[in-house]
Amino acid sequence: MILILDTHPLVWLLEGSRRLSAIARRTMGNERNGLVVPTICLAEAKYLYAKSRIAIDHGEVSSVIEHGDRFRVCPLNSAVVFKMPVSLDIHDAIICDTALLYDDLYDDEVVVVTKDEQIRNSGLVKTVW
């Protein structure tokens, strides 16, 4: 399974936060599942740290992702933008786009890990929370 991570599940996983749901923690902890981080999530994590809303800084996030075998970063490029649904706000749309792109490119189940109700209720992608 390929997991596309929203910002908060990514941060909460790295912080070891109890705010991460048990299902999300178990799914993300499964070594067979790949973890894809859209670049928008890296930007949001950096912003949230600068506003003192999360405890883990951009350097720590980047280091874990760079050194973790299961992590891949998906850049925001024209392939992602092409699939972007306009029914969601831009941040949520980019996360969904990434899932839609991976679903087209890989022969594996693609699931977005998110607490975001707009993404979960959109019906555009499979989600876990």
Explain this structure to me?
The chain has 129 residues and is of the alpha/beta class. Helices cover 51% and strands 15% of the residues. The protein has a 5-stranded parallel sheet with strand order 3-2-1-4-5.
Quick synopsis:
The protein is of the alpha/beta class and 129 residues long. It has helices at residues 7-15, 22-29, 39-50, 58-67, 78-82, 90-105, 117-122; strands at 2-5, 34-38, 71-74, 110-113, 127-128. α1 (7-15) packs across α3 (39-50).
SSE blueprint and pairings:
Blueprint: E1 2-5, H1 7-15, H2 22-29, E2 34-38, H3 39-50, H4 58-67, E3 71-74, H5 78-82, H6 90-105, E4 110-113, H7 117-122, E5 127-128
Parallel strand pairs: 1-2, 1-4, 2-3, 4-5
Compute the number of strand runs. Answer: 5
Helical percent range? Answer: 40-55%
Say what oligomer this is: single chain
Per CATH, which architecture?
A: 3-Layer(aba) Sandwich
State the fourth-level CATH superfamily.
5'-nuclease
